[in-house]
Automatic annotation (TrEMBL):
This is Alpha-L-glutamate ligase-related protein ATP-grasp domain-containing protein. Residues 177-331 form the Alpha-L-glutamate ligase-related protein ATP-grasp domain. InterPro entries: RimK-rel_E_lig_ATP-grasp. It comes from the Bacteria. Pfam families: ATPgrasp_ST.
């Protein structure tokens, strides 16, 4: 399965072949053999990041089978996973315990819309424009962020504004009629982070772990940035990620795009040209404290927290019950 995903993805193959930071072919072959013997599996995952010259400790990174074992272990607590997996469940749970997250305004389930404890059913697109416009006016906001309840990687997310309302609802008509969505207030990003990229909310992915004894720790942290006009920062949507110095709360010297998008090394934001190394993340200490504290409310063994930084401090965009471990693995320089 892993080799098929690699071979059937021309962007990933092209990204590897064109990467100037890849190791010499002889070294690649040697390391593939070493990993195959050590991990007892074909190391197709090697071509996601380990092929880069700077990666020396190849045995410290999770293999495909090891990631699968972790995922199998963390989904055992269904009651906790069910809170995290559905964005509506998570938002409502956060409301109960006053956990900071974007304020939910309304939600939709198969073309039924729920707002202010009332349901409006089978609404057509023309009336939907009026319906949403009235809600924006009633809430005194001019934009909403819309997310599918159960999709990941930024898939299906979009922003509604008074200026683009009619056009965007027409564009998303089929998805809205057949899908389930959460509409929240748009997060106002910290001005220092806006200097790097202001078109997307750029989040910190923090991976927390709960031991069998109940001890909570943070294993890894990376910051993700959107590129171009994208409203999401996910690397799977064309953005990139950069590891964070866990002690200092500063960005490391370089980040990476996914191999699918060229796998290039990034030292400056492609749009703003802002130098990333050494950037001190506002409210970093408070962000660390927040995810540790919030894990007490949802003590799942592993959680990938997506933390946004506002002018007033951190807020949780969402929490992932089965986070992509490759991202955290690279951010930690190997989780093993």
């Amino acid at each position: 399965m892993a080799i098929l995903r690699f071979v059937e993805n021309p962007g990933r193959i092209k990204g590897y072949l064109n990467d100037p930071d890849k190791k010499p072919l002889f070294q690649v072959i040697k390391e593939l053999v070493v990993l195959a013997m050590y991990k007892k599996e074909m190391p197709y995952y090697y071509f996601l990041h380990l092929y880069k010259k700077e990666v020396k400790n190849i045995k410290d990174f999770l293999s495909t089978k090891e990631r699968a074992l972790v995922r199998k272990d963390i989904v055992k607590k269904y009651e906790l996973v069910s809170i995290l997996h559905n964005k509506l469940s998570f938002a409502l749970y956060c409301e109960i315990y006053n956990l900071k997250t974007p304020e939910p305004i309304l939600y939709s389930l198969s073309n039924n819309y729920y707002y202010n404890k009332k349901v409006t059913t089978n609404i057509n697109n023309r009336d939907l424009v009026i319906y949403i416009r009235d809600i924006l006016k009633n809430e005194s906001v001019d934009e909403l962020f819309v997310r599918p309840l159960s999709l990941f990687g930024g898939t299906g997310c979009f922003k509604l504004t008074l200026d683009n309302l009619e056009a965007t609802l027409e564009e998303q008509r089929e998805s809205l009629q057949n899908g389930n969505y959460l509409f929240t207030k748009v997060v106002k990003q910290h001005p220092e982070i806006n200097k790097i990229q202001e078109k997307s909310v750029n989040t910190i992915r923090m991976l927390t772990h709960v031991t069998d004894e109940g001890k909570i720790s943070m294993l890894s942290a990376v910051m993700r940035f959107g590129v171009g006009d994208s409203v999401v920062d996910n690397s799977s949507a064309g953005g990139f990620y950069i590891p964070i110095n866990l002690k200092e709360g500063t960005l490391m010297s370089k980040g990476w795009a996914k191999t699918d998008f060229g796998g290039e090394r990034i030292t400056h934001h492609p749009d703003s040209k802002f130098k990333l190394e050494g950037f001190k993340i506002p409210f970093y200490k408070e962000s660390c404290e927040m995810v540790i504290e919030y894990t007490k409310y949802i003590p799942n063994k592993l959680i990938g927290w997506d933390v946004a930084i506002t002018p007033d401090g951190p807020t949780i965009i969402e929490a992932n019950d089965s986070p992509y471990l490759g991202l955290s693995d690279i951010g930690a320089g190997g989780l093993l």
